[in-house]
Design a protein that fits this description.
Alpha-Beta Plaits, alpha+beta, 298 residues, Ribosomal Protein S5, domain 2, six-stranded mixed sheet, four-stranded antiparallel sheet, 32% helix
Length: 298
């Protein structure tokens, strides 16, 4: 089973809600063709085995929560533990890991969502229980229960389907992990009882129409609030974005709170050129080709 990464097209971080301090956000989440492979099988006990294809920055982080470390700290284990009263068997999990943590790509959340889908099908668990478990365990997990790009609002739990044109891209993952909690703290958003915004700034009808036709340059109206914070801390990341734009990318951005940076274009003829330049100028970073996934059959 494929477990996709996601990229953010724009990311606006709003105020925090008083009851738990969670930040409200607005963003377009897009699943992409770069991701992990994960397989499930019913067994006598819960277990996780893994093959690691991660860059050095994430190697020890992942090893610490796999079968060679402490499985109880893994998000997959937390899903099984949360739903244990609905599950009559153990689950054996085999994970081929390519999406690093601390990259803003939602890898762990994607894996957890695939497990939730498997458990729902195997044990006929009600959809609202699956969704509430996803919502409880991680802000990105509810999105990965979906199958297509979404305008995401609330705390990452409100969705509106977005129609997008085709896109090809290059994804660069620096050998640096960015702490998501620290990135949020650096934005210094205040507690406020107001309701969450229902849209993303800059996402006008004109921009929406342009994105349907793969006019990715119009996504320049959408800003990732974390870029200023993360690029100030890691100036080399800005160099990655600049290289992408200078070599023909229609749009480039940090994904989530980073550290991954990606670019988009309508045709795939620029992919290899940009990939070669990135590998030459940023050899310590891992760069990968991808396309966006618009429909389940993609």
């Amino acid at each position: 089973m494929f477990s996709p990464a996601k990229i953010n097209l724009g990311l606006e971080v709003h105020h925090r809600r008083p009851e738990d301090g969670y930040h409200y956000l607005s963003s377009i989440f897009i699943p992409i063709s770069f991701g992990d492979k994960i397989e499930f099988e019913l067994s006598n006990e819960n277990s996780l085995t893994s093959i690691n294809h991660l860059p050095d920055a994430s190697y020890h982080d992942f090893e610490a929560v796999t079968e060679r470390g402490d499985f109880s700290k893994n998000l997959l284990y937390k899903v099984l533990k949360t739903l244990e009263k609905y599950i009559q068997k153990g689950v054996s999990i085999h994970l081929e890991k390519k999406i690093p943590s601390g990259a803003g790509l939602g890898g762990g959340s994607s894996n957890a969502a695939q497990l939730l889908k498997f458990l729902q099908k195997q044990f006929n668990i009600e959809e609202n229980i699956i969704f509430e478990t996803a919502r409880k365990l991680g802000a990105d997990i509810p999105f990965f229960l979906q199958d297509s790009p979404m305008l995401v609002t609330g705390i990452g739990d409100r969705f509106q389907k977005i129609s997008l044109g085709s896109a090809w891209g290059v994804l660069t993952i620096p050998d640096i992990q960015v702490s998501t909690p620290n990135a949020y703290r650096a934005l210094k958003r205040t507690l406020h009882p107001d309701h969450p915004p229902k849209n993303l700034s800059g996402l006008s009808e004109t921009v929406l129409e342009a994105l349907k036709h793969s006019r990715w340059e119009m996504a320049g109206n959408l800003v990732n609030d974390f870029e200023k914070v993360v690029f100030n801390q890691y100036p080399e990341f800005r160099g990655v974005k600049d290289l992408m734009l200078e070599n023909g990318a229609q749009y480039s951005s940090l994904s989530g709170s980073g550290s991954a940076i990606y670019c988009l274009f309508k045709e795939n003829n620029l992919q290899k050129t940009i990939l070669e330049k990135l590998n030459s100028q940023f050899p310590r970073y891992s760069s990968n080709l991808f396309r966006i996934l618009n429909k389940p059959e993609d």
